[in-house]
Design a protein that fits this description.
Subunit structure: Homodimer. Binds the thyroid hormone triiodothyronine (T3); T3 binding inhibits enzymatic activity.
EC number: 1.5.1.1, 1.5.1.25
Helix content: 25-40%
CATH topology of the largest domain: Rossmann fold
Number of strands: 15
Organism: Osmerus mordax (Rainbow smelt)
Pfam families: OCD_Mu_crystall
Order of helices and strands: EHHEEEEEEHEHEHEHEEHEHHEHEH
InterPro entries: NAD(P)-bd_dom_sf, ODC_Mu_crystall, ODC_N
Bound molecules: 1,4-dihydronicotinamide adenine dinucleotide, 3,4-dihydro-2H-pyrrolium-5-carboxylate
Strand content: 15-25%
Number of domains: 2
Shape: globular
Radius of gyration: 19 Å
Strand order of the largest sheet: 10-9-8-11-12-15-13-14
Structural class: alpha/beta
CATH architecture of the largest domain: 3-Layer(aba) Sandwich
CATH superfamily of the largest domain: NAD(P)-binding Rossmann-like Domain
Length: 316
């Protein structure tokens, strides 16, 4: 592409076809490992800048990242909102801008919604691969929106669960989710019913108060906690946060943004990247929480995959 060309515009349905979990997961593992080395000759990714949109109960997150050897420079811009439980408006909307790092020109504008859905779910699947108990049979998903769908897809593609359960504050939302996916899903009337005896619990809700209580969680279970991305928002209670071994994507991100970590006073044991690098153990036999906040480098990896394939297809 010439640097005077207009940027490519890559739409949601194109991203959907180009971003596959089998390609994404190994690349995310490498990127998170690199991130945890904190070597600015390899990767630069600050904690996201967040601007409150008070009037609309929302936030704009700016998430730049530069991967030096891969020569990927990009930033995601994501708006996310505190929505009423019954609202049908999306919780997040995102766009990814890809730049030529040598000249600074904009190469692509990529719809960020599929990237956000898939990379977040893929990272949760990586956490489960490392931390869930051996012989995990039951998966519980709390929340039934966009992230629930992508998490269902990657978790059922990557692992073999005997049973999948879903809960949402409105039963009809959970029922709609269950009938929209390929495969059997039990719709539960309460969080307790959904998570009792579950080996893996994914929390993908808009909750701002705890919905998952430690007393319901089976000892040794793994929780991938994806919602509650503000310092005063919660999905998990203090009991769970204090009893579990807590893993995060980025220590700085978690310390700045996670209400579950900040307000419970829980200690962060490790970043997933440290486990992937072999520098921290994966406590599979203990109850574990992976607190996900999302990182710019995860979007950078995804945007590169999408853009490289998009360019290849254009040359054919
Ligand atoms: N960690 C990360 O990297 C990312 C985190 N997120 C967060 O993940 C969460 C889910 O995102 P989406 O699936 O896109 O949202 P969504 O709006 O599509 O779905 C959210 C679901 O949460 C449930 N819900 C709604 N209000 C609730 C309440 N008060 N208590 C409990 N459950 C409630 C409903 O089942 C609803 O369908 C959001 O909190 C979002 O901010 C989103 C993107 C990336
Ligand atoms: O990483 C991400 O895109 C987000 N994290 C929380 C809301 C959106």
């Amino acid at each position: 592409m010439d640097m005077t060309d207009s940027p490519a515009v890559i739409k949601q349905d194109e991203v959907e076809g180009l971003l596959l979990y089998k390609d994404l997961i190994p690349r995310l593992e490498v990127a998170m490992g690199k991130f945890s080395k904190r070597n600015s000759d390899e990767l630069i990714q600050p904690v996201r800048t967040v601007i409150p949109l008070q009037k609309y109960n929302g936030f704009l997150g700016l998430m730049p990242a530069y991967m030096v050897h891969e020569d990927v420079l990009c930033t995601k811009m994501v708006c996310f909102y505190k929505r009423e439980s019954g609202s049908t408006l999306p919780s997040t909307q995102a766009t990814v801008l890809v730049f030529d790092p040598e000249y600074g020109n904009l190469k692509a504008v990529i719809n960020g919604d599929v990237i956000t859905a898939k990379r977040t779910a893929a990272v949760s699947a990586i956490s489960a691969k490392l931390l869930m108990p051996g012989q995990s049979e039951v998966l519980a998903i709390l929340g039934a929106g966009h992230q629930a769908v992508s998490h269902y897809q990657v978790f059922t593609e990557t692992f073999s669960f005997r049973e999948v359960r879903v809960w949402s504050p409105r039963r009809e939302t959970a029922a709609k989710f269950a009938s929209s996916v390929d495969g059997a899903v039990s719709v539960c009337d309460s969080v307790e019913e959904a998570v009792r005896g579950a080996d893996v619990i994914v929390t993908v809700t808009r909750a701002t108060e705890p919905v998952l209580l430690g007393k319901w969680v089976k000892p040794g279970a793994h929780v991938a906690a994806v919602g509650a991305c503000r310092p005063d928002w919660r999905e998990l209670d203090d009991d769970l946060m204090r009893e579990a071994v807590v893993y995060v994507d980025s220590r700085e991100g978690a310390t700045a943004e996670s209400g579950d970590i900040i307000l419970s006073g829980a200690e962060v044991f490790a970043e997933l990247g440290e486990v992937l690098n072999g520098n921290k153990p994966a406590h599979r036999k203990k109850t574990t929480v992976f607190k996900s906040l999302g990182m710019g480098v995860q979007d950078a990896v995804s945007a590169k995959l999408v853009f490289d394939q998009w360019e290849q297809q254009r040359k054919l």
